[in-house]
Each structure stands twice: as C-alpha cells, then as structure tokens.
Design a protein that fits this description.
The protein has 349 residues and is an alpha/beta fold. It has a single domain, classed as Deoxyhypusine synthase (Deoxyhypusine Synthase). The protein has 15 helices and 11 strands. The strands form 3 sheets. It has a 6-stranded parallel β-sheet, with helices on both faces. A 3-stranded antiparallel β-sheet has the order 3-5-4. A two-stranded parallel sheet has the order 6-8.
Length: 349
C-alpha cells in the first residue's frame, strides 16, 4: 500500500454559509410556535433584530469556539459590511488562525473524525479540528506574517485592537481573499478585540518577534484592551450583545458595565443580550452562566435576554439571517468606533 500524501486529505474545501442567499425569516417565525430550543431561538432572533432596529443601540458580537473554520466566516463579513455589528470581541484562533489565515489565501478542508489516524495527519503536517483539516505548513506562514507585522511596528505596548487593525491594513495591500472579517472590519472601522491574543498563531509570531528583539519590541497590553472596550461602552451607552459561545470574550464584554462604574461613569447595563452555547450551567463554567445570573452582577438587563442551547453552526445562520432579511439594519449608520478609539489614543498622547 502506497504511503498517503497530503493531497489525499486536503481535497474539498469548507464553504461559508451566506445569509444574503437564504431567507430564513419564515422558518424562524414558524419556530416561535414550537417549543424548547426552537422557541428560544426564535425569541433570540427577534431580540437581535430589536438591537438592529434600536437606533441608539450599539451591537457587540462576541465569539468563542472554532467558528470560521466551520463555515461561519461569511456571516460575520456580511454583518460588518451591512452595519449589523459595531464591535467584535473574539478568541485569537477565530480571528488569526481562521480568518486572517484565509485572508492570506489559504483554506480549511472537509475532514472526518472517523476512521482517521491522527499520527498520519501529524506526519503529513495536517491539523484536525473535529471534521476539518488545516495545512500546518500554511499556518506557519500565518505565524510568520504576524511576526512580519510585529517587526514593522514601533516598539511599544499595543491593544489587540490596534494590532488587528494593522493586520487589516496588511490584508488591504497583500490579501488574496477579500471575504475576511479582519479586512472588512478595517474597511468599515469596526474594532476587533482579542483579550487572550497570544493564544493563537499571532502568539507564535510575537514570541519570535520578542525573542529576536529582547530589549526593544512591541508588546500586547490586555488592560489597554479592557480600557478601550470600556470606552466604547461609555460612548455607546445603550448596547446589545450577540454572543456565540462563552469564555473570555463573553465575560470581557459583560464586565465593561462594571468597569465603567469603577471609573466613575454612569453607564447602563447591556440592554439586550443573546447567547448561543452548548455549555451546561451545572458544570459551573463561565461559558454556561445564564444572562439572568449576569444581571445579579449588574451587567445585563433581564427584559430582553435569551439563552439558546444549540451548537453555533445551527443557530448562528438562523439568528443572523433573520436579522439580515428583516432589514432593520438598512436604517443603521456605521458607528466607526475604530476611528473614535484612534482619536482617544491621540488625545491620551
């Protein structure tokens, strides 16, 4: 039997779901007359649409999990381009290893968790995310590119938002796939925050950057991230959170209300909140803590909140697609919080 090649596994690419092509409003409205998770999802979709219809409300999208490798990237690209989101908080893997990675021209491939020898995959430099394959050699190019960007910057502390803006600038000049969240956010002036930024391919690039420049290098300031997102919350006042998964992005965003209070600024709790998760509240994890629980901390109002216990690739296309086809976003104006934060940065200097 011949030895397998990388090409034997990296054949069919993952295709991204497009909310613009599938009108799901009738389906979601019908689910409102059902029960259990179907009715929860329908209410969540209505709440997200309420965020978009509320002209005073700024929408913050939070993301955790392997979302873009699974085909959800184009949804967020379209949300950004159509003013359906005003700020993003995410894990580094989604923004760097999955989105920036594809922006450089690389792909994710259909794989399988069944009957596969992961030792063979390792020998072929193929990484597996459940039923998705990634070329490890291409990921190393992504690592090297983040190092290249870090090497080009003035040696000082940066927020992840500032660095991701530089990634967007890089893709605007050198990117090969224009359907990129990092690029769309750069063009639409939507800030992206990654509080745990070193926990992804960018971390490897920065590791090498600081190793080679021990006395004079750029660094990542997570407190600056928190300050900048809190400034967005203070400036926006009325906010809605659309949360896919939980983890750091969820808590980081909810905590801005408490942070504003600590800074002596009167700031309302998040007015709207939707969370899609498979985490079980009984395991005690932050990802599973309910939005009603968050109200006890003074973070989220309980009037318009909904937990949806569903896997993201099932729920996100329906909720976001409902918001897109209801059309409330058509009267929304871009908030351009990236420009607001850049002005604040200049003011601070």
């Amino acid at each position: 039997m011949s030895k397998p090649n990388k090409s034997d596994y990296l054949k069919e690419t993952v295709k991204h779901f497009e909310i613009t092509r599938h009108n799901v409003t009738a389906m979601v409205d019908a689910m409102d007359d059902m029960a259990f998770s179907a009715r929860d999802l329908a209410r969540a979709a209505r709440i997200y649409n309420m965020m978009l219809a509320d002209k005073k409300c700024s929408v913050i999208l939070t993301m955790a999990g392997s979302l873009f490798s699974a085909g959800l990237k184009k949804i967020v690209v379209d949300m950004i381009r159509n003013n359906m989101v005003d700020a993003i908080v995410s894990t580094g893997a989604i923004i760097v290893d999955q989105d920036f990675f594809e922006g450089l021209g690389f792909k994710h491939y259909k794989g399988t968790p069944y009957g596969i020898d992961d030792n063979i995959l390792r020998d072929l430099h193929i990484d597996r995310i459940y039923d998705t394959f990634i070329d490890e050699d291409e990921l190393r190019v992504c690592d090297d590119t983040t190092k290249k960007i870090a090497d080009s910057l003035e040696p000082r502390p940066y927020s992840s938002r500032e660095f991701i803006e530089e990634m967007g600038r890089y893709l605007a000049k050198h990117g090969k796939n224009k359907d990129s969240v990092v690029l769309a956010a750069y063009e639409k002036r939507v800030p992206i925050f990654v509080p745990a930024f070193s926990d992804c391919s960018a971390g490897f690039g920065m590791l090498e950057h600081q190793w080679n420049n021990p006395d004079k290098h750029m660094s990542m300031d997570s407190a600056k991230d928190f300050l900048e997102l809190t400034k967005v919350k203070i400036e926006a006042r009325d906010t809605g959170i659309f949360m896919i998964g939980g983890g750091v992005p969820k808590n980081f965003t909810q905590d801005t209300v408490v942070a504003a209070d600590i800074l002596g600024k009167e700031c309302p709790m998040h007015k709207y909140a939707v969370q899609v998760t498979v985490a079980d509240v009984r395991d005690g994890a932050l990802s599973s803590s309910t939005l009603k629980e968050a109200s006890s901390w003074g973070k989220v109002e309980t009037t318009h909140e909904q937990m949806v216990y569903s896997e993201a690739t099932l729920a996100m296309p329906l909720i976001a697609g409902y918001g897109y086809h209801k059309g409330a976003w058509k009267s929304r104006k871009a908030k351009c919080y990236s420009d607001f934060l850049n002005k604040e940065l200049v003011k601070a200097c």
